[in-house]
Specification:
By secondary structure, this protein is α+β, with helices and mostly antiparallel strands. The chain has helices at 2-40, 101-112, 114-119, 132-143, 166-170, 210-226, 252-257, and strands at 70-74, 77-81, 89-95, 122-128, 159-161, 186-190, 196-201, 240-241, 260-264, 267-270.
Length: 273
């Protein structure tokens, strides 16, 4: 009798354990399934896409390098620089902001010299970091000004909108540690092969010399066309330097008749034609 009772108890214990295990297994499966569904739900935990880290090494393209290309909106429509300007010489003239007094006088001076730049086959492109509509307002305001007692001038060259700083970064005018536009004050002179031939920067509080810009381009063209060099403070019509010593076998009279003379054995000039 006692053995029978013991067997019944064991039977009930085994059934209880079995039922409990079934419930536990069911619960585990339920939790596992719910977890899988939750992980596949795009609304459960919105994925945070990793934004690419911007390379802040905005280097200035150097003399002898190809001018960086860009496409942007301007006051003359969409332009691709420097490609749109073919075999012309080009000047990229940059500004940190519209309606600044120094930049306003610079653009007025450039506009006043447009005929002279045209004679040299030079295309001017200005860049400023404001929006296109602000450029339009600035341009209209400048064209209504009477500067240095001159007649008001039309600004024929484009002013590129660079509010996202894409152009300024390509040309190395933004500091690595900040997005300030304070130093977007570069001038880049580019030859017909789209190679940078000269670069200079001015601080925001000092106006750039547009006569010097004309002189620089004239000197670069003279050097390129005639394979000569220009001395300090050279102006169009002045004598030029030659890179090599002329014919060593020629007499002084013969060299003089060809327009050569020297300051020292290592400094030779050629008279202007």
């Amino acid at each position: 009798m006692l053995c029978l009772i013991s067997l019944n108890k064991n039977k009930y214990s085994i059934n209880f354990i079995f039922k409990t295990m079934k419930k536990l297994m069911f619960f585990v499966l339920l939790v596992f399934s719910a977890t899988k569904l939750w992980s596949q739900d795009p609304f459960a935990y919105p994925s945070q896409e990793q934004k690419p880290v911007e390379d802040r090494n905005f280097r200035i393209p150097l003399i002898g390098e190809t001018a960086p290309s860009f496409t942007a909106e301007s006051t003359s429509g969409e332009i691709t620089f420097p490609d749109n300007y073919g075999r012309n010489w080009k000047v990229l003239f940059s500004h940190p902001q519209d309606f600044t007094p120094v930049c306003t006088t610079e653009l007025l001076e450039l506009a006043n010299l447009q005929d002279q730049f045209d004679k040299l086959g030079v295309k001017i492109v200005a860049v400023s970091t404001d929006r296109l509509d602000t450029h339009e307002q600035w341009k209209k305001a400048m064209e209504g000004l009477v500067y240095k007692d001159r007649k008001s001038v039309k600004i024929d060259f484009p002013i590129v909108a660079d509010e996202n700083l894409a152009v300024s970064k390509k040309y190395g005018m933004i500091h690595a540690a900040t997005n300030t536009t304070r130093d977007v004050r570069g001038v880049y002179i580019i030859d017909p092969d789209n190679i940078i031939q000269a670069i200079y920067f001015y601080p925001k509080n000092v106006g750039r010399n547009t006569d010097e810009l004309l002189r620089m381009i004239t000197a670069l063209q003279k050097s390129s066309d005639e394979h000569v060099m220009t001395p300090a403070n050279w102006k169009a019509g002045d004598d030029v330097l030659i890179p090599t010593i002329p014919n060593a076998n020629a007499s002084a009279e013969e060299l003089a008749s060809e327009g050569f003379y020297n300051l020292a054995w290592f400094v030779w000039y050629k008279k202007a034609k």
